[in-house]
Amino acid sequence: MSSIPPEATASPIPLRPAKAAAESATTSRPHPKPGIPTPKLRLECKDLSHPGALIFFGTTNPATILSDAVTVVLQTLYIPFEGNAAIPPTRSITLVLRSMPGVAYTTGIDLDDDHKEIHFSLDYIANIKNTSASPQRQRQEIEGVIVHEMVHCWQWTALGTAPGGLIEGIADFVRLRDALDPPHWKKESGGDWDAGYQHTAYFLEWIDAKFGEGNVMRVNEALRDKKYDEKSFWRQLFGKSVQDLWSEYSKTFEVDDLEEGVLVERDTVEDGKSSVKNKSVIEGGTSERAPSGYV
Asked: What is the CB neighbour count within 10 angstroms for residue 98?
């Protein structure tokens, strides 16, 4: 007759020393520092045999052109990072190369606006070569357009109420800051401040120089979570109306010869007089604006 084995007893859980338990309770892992967001990046080409596609893939690095543009935009508009909550929650960006009129445009996907598409005209890219541009100039123009459109994937728009000229001006300001401005861009003193593109970009560059680097970043931040009101917007940021700022900016220029279209930038000196700082010729008295379809 076999004997019944004794019931198994659970081994007692060893207790941690009181000192070790206290240290564990008070020690926490350091929070990771906010960094540059890393959205999913995609490239789609509708026609690999198109002359524009041959130029794009022959002059750029497809593996890095989008990620480099993301870095440029976020470093210009958001660094130093105080937290990624201040950055739009863009989750993916697809560059679509296709034949179409115009230059480029950016849109959100209907089902989820956090997923963006940049549509870039292969016909426009092909035309860069037709202007006898060098491969370096072709690459600079392609990168410049992509940087401009990439801004639209990340900038704030005052809940959709900001002037279109300001939105486009900020995009070209980032392009200008990255030294991707094309040869035809010229500083202008006439017209409205919010004419957009390089016209407004140079105005924003002047604001950044006058009030200190990072003030265009402040403009973008002020467009984040409330509707745009022109009377209060600029005064809250700079203590002046935008018309006063534009007038002050315009005074840094003189038009010596309207018929010739010569634009002279003034550099004010201590005695109140002005000296010529920079001269550029505007062909026909007007400057070339952004090509149709560049949005």
From this structure: 16
Query: H-helix or E-strand containing 276?
Result: strand 274-281
Query: Helix, strand, or coil here: 161?
Result: coil
Q: Rounded to an integer, what distance in angstroms lies between the CA atom of residue 82 and that of residue 217? A: 13
Residues 141-190: tens digit of each pLDDT: 999 999 999 999 999 999 999 999 999 999 999 999 999 999 999 998 88
3-class DSSP state for residue 218?
helix
Place of tokens 């007089």: 273
**Both ends of the chain: CA-CA distance in Å?**
94
Six token digits for residue 231 = 């009377």
What value, to the nearest 5°, has the Cα angle with vertex 266 and ends 215 and 253?
75
> E strands of 32-173, at which residues?
40-45, 92-98, 104-109, 112-121
Q: In the structure encoding, which two tokens stand for residue 288, read together? A: 């070339």
* pLDDT confidence of residue 286: 30
pLDDT tens digit string along 249-291?
999 886 434 444 444 444 443 333 433 333 333 233 333 344 4
For strands 262-268 and 40-45, give the pairing.
unpaired
Q: Is the whole model's pTM more than 0.85, yes or no?
A: no
Please tell me the distance from the alpha carbon of residue 252 to that of residue 274, in angstroms, as a whole number.
9
Backbone angles phi, psi at 135, to 5 degrees: -55, -35
Share of the chain above pLDDT 70, in %: 73
